[in-house]
Amino acid sequence: MKILKFNAIWCPGCLVMRPRWNKVINELPEIEITEYDYDSNREEVELWNIGNKLPVAIIVDDKGSELTRIIGEKSVDDLFEIINELMVK
Amino acid sequence: MKRFKLLVILLLFIFLIPVSAKASEKVNVHLFYSDDCPHCKKEITLLDKLEKENKIVVYKYELSNSTLYKDLVSKVRKTFNIDNSYVPLTVIGTNHYIGYNDNTAIKIENTVAYYSNKTYQDIVTEIINNQFDPATDEFVVDEIEESLIKIPYLGLINPKEISLPIIAAVIGLVDGFNPCAMWVLLFLISTLIGMKSKKRMWILGLTFIITSAFIYLLFMASWLKVAVTITSVTWMKILIGVVAITAGLVNLKSYLKKLKEEDGCTVVDDKKRNKIIDKIKKVTTEKSLVFALIGIMALAISVNIIELACSAGLPLLFTQILAMNDLNSIQYVIYMLIYILFFLIDDIIIFAIAMVTLELTGVSTKYSKYSHLIGGIIMIIIGLLLLFNPSLLSFNI
User: Fold this and answer.
1) Which of B2, B30, B273, B339 could, after both became Cys, cross-link B91 (CB 3.0–4.6 A)?
2) Among the partner residues B264, B361, B364, nearest to A54 by beta-carbon distance
3) Domain parsing of chain A, residue ranges
4) ipTM above 0.95, yes or no
5) pLDDT in tens, A50-85
6) Looking at the domain A2-88, which fold is it?
7) 3-state class (DSSP) for residue B28
8) What residues of chain A lie within 8 A of the CB of B364, using their CB?
9) Residue from the list A9, A12, A72 with its beta carbon closest to the beta carbon of B262
10) Domains and CATH numbers, chain B
């Protein structure tokens, strides 16, 4: 499982989510995280059709196909719940 | 030529602020006392304090060591049907108080607050000037509204005097949580953090915030000038009331819309965003500090004009409330500065934390959702008051 995170430096919501994601990463080190910047990584933004709401986190399986996407601000519990659900499947 | 331009800008700024000085009348307080009376001493301490605060003028008549005021005090006692010779005897307007304790102190301050900035009958002065004859003339005792409230540690507060600062702070705070330009500040800070020179970082950051405050003050002062002239025009007040209610409903609608959406940042349109991002990059990498400062100021001006268009409702309404209150120019500026301080307080906090920790912190976007809710409610309330009971918005008249 991989997580593609799309953020922007000027986005307060992204700043709020950063420490929350750090908690998830510390507890689930096996999950690979890739960060993209909304302004600098335009290709990936278009490729994954990110839309006009940030932050976005896309969870993909090992073959790279999208399992789900998390849009906007979520609590740490919500993040663990979504990820654990996918891991069980 | 440069000096001439500077003069024009200064004149424009000064011209924008309405100059209408209105001396606030002090209240006459007449105290009949005696030197060896302990309660009198306590009361004199209170009256001296009020006099120092330019609220009153104290006239003292010492009775025990001379007969100078014997005739006057007997006339005053006759006027108020007082059949004893207790002191202190305090007369304010058409009200009198015998003796002194905490309750009397509150009554005296209430009476002073009630009479301030009002015309009233000053019985003792009339007796002194032979304009009032206790034997034949009559008068009506003014009913003093118990307007002052006692707040622990703060003492007696006149809600009318603190309403405007509180409204300035609340509306300014709600206005400030509007996210329209927050992203610009965050991006600017992110580029400032990367700077080698911390001094330049602080200078540019503070210039951005101070320029933003100045632009907002200029805008509010200009609108205040208009509001002061139209505030007596009833149909204008009705029109502003209707616009306020409409804007309030629009805000409530966007709150309901945001309820269904995720909390997060709505991305501003690419072209506009990239243009501002390029401007910020250019300014923060500018070698010359002077050009960087000019660039930052231009950026702050353009960003705040966007911000104003995005949330012009609240500052307009606040200046409308100011215009409906009997204030002088200095008071206008003070209240606008309170508004702007609270409007910028989230920016100032984020900037200060970033400068100290060299890390960006964000405020959850869910609060901007609530700023639409609270802002909308405030606009509707003010709009309804403008339509049905505008006098409630006049706190110190």
Assistant:
1) B30
2) B264
3) 2-88
4) no
5) 988 899 999 998 888 999 999 999 999 999 999 988
6) Glutaredoxin (3.40.30)
7) strand
8) 12-13, 16, 73
9) A72
10) 27-160 (3.40.30.10), 162-393 (no CATH)
